[in-house]
Write a structure and sequence with these properties.
Layout (H helix, E strand, L loop, with lengths): L14 H20 L18 H14 L18 E2 L5 E5 L4 H6 L6 H12 L8 E4 L13 H18 L3 E5 L1 H8 L5 H4 L4 E3 L2 E6 L2 H6 L4 H17 L5
Parallel strand pairs: 2-3, 2-4, 4-6
Antiparallel strand pairs: 1-3, 5-6
Helix pairs in contact: 1-4, 2-5
């Protein structure tokens, strides 16, 4: 009896089909692990290029110009300015709303519970925190974690725009309603915008739910993972994962 063929026979899966199934399984298992399941291997970190000196210098200039910012009332409540972190030449940038309690104390974005979930999602994508760039719409914590006000956003937005220009990502993932509304200049809910790409000054933008929202509504993690898979597919198609 001859062994069953994997290519060329009617009813048998091709090598390409088997590869696609295995890739989908790997991605799904990675996201399950990111959501708190145990017993799964984490997807290895993808390679990334070294950051360009120009990107580092440009970000340093933005941070220097921001200084000990007193441009809006949020300065009265902060412990630290939370500027941004990650690869200054990242292909993928995550933009959130603003610092929370833990971020305000540490001066780093997304380090609390929501940040740890974001780290797991990034790892499930085959990336690492160091290989992407993470920042927020506003750099100081709004009191009681309220949404930033229009004048507060207006004061910070020029610095965010310069951060985006300095890093020059190929893709942006906006996390939550505020980041999505500000970058895309829209009032349409994230639930209606997520799942497809939008444009910010020639950069493809994928809106998705904020990790803090996922902690309250874990059933939305499946939709978020679908958004992450779209980002991964875009990165792979454009050779951004190597």
């Amino acid at each position: 009896m001859r062994a069953p063929a994997v290519t060329g026979e009617t009813g048998s899966p091709s090598v390409e089909e088997l590869s696609a199934v295995l890739a989908e399984l790997r991605n799904s298992l990675g996201f399950m692990a990111a959501c708190g399941c145990t017993g799964f291997d984490r997807i290895p970190d993808a390679g990334r290029p070294e950051a360009s000196a120009g990107g580092i210098a440009a970000l340093d200039e933005v941070r220097s110009d921001l200084g000990d910012c007193r441009r809006c009332g949020l300065c009265r409540f902060r412990t630290h300015i939370v500027f941004g972190t990650g690869d200054p030449h990242a292909r993928l940038m995550f933009v959130g709303e603003g610092p929370g309690y833990d971020e305000d104390l540490s001066g780093e974005p997304f380090v609390g519970r929501a940040g740890r979930l974001l780290d797991r999602i990034i790892a499930a994508m085959g990336l690492s925190r160091a290989s992407v760039y993470i920042c927020n719409i506003v750099k100081c914590r709004p009191p009681e974690n309220r949404d930033p006000l229009p004048d507060e956003i207006g004061s910070c937005l020029p610095f965010l725009e310069r951060q985006i220009e300095a890093v020059s990502p190929r893709l942006i993932c906006t996390l939550g309603a505020v980041a999505t509304r500000v970058l895309l200049q829209t009032s349409v809910p994230v639930s209606r915008l997520r799942g497809r790409f939008h444009d910010y000054r020639g950069i493809r933008v994928m809106p998705t739910y904020h990790p803090a929202f996922l902690l309250r509504y874990p059933e939305k993690k499946r939709e978020t993972w679908s958004d992450m898979k779209a980002l991964m597919s875009e990165m792979e198609m454009n050779s951004l994962l190597t």
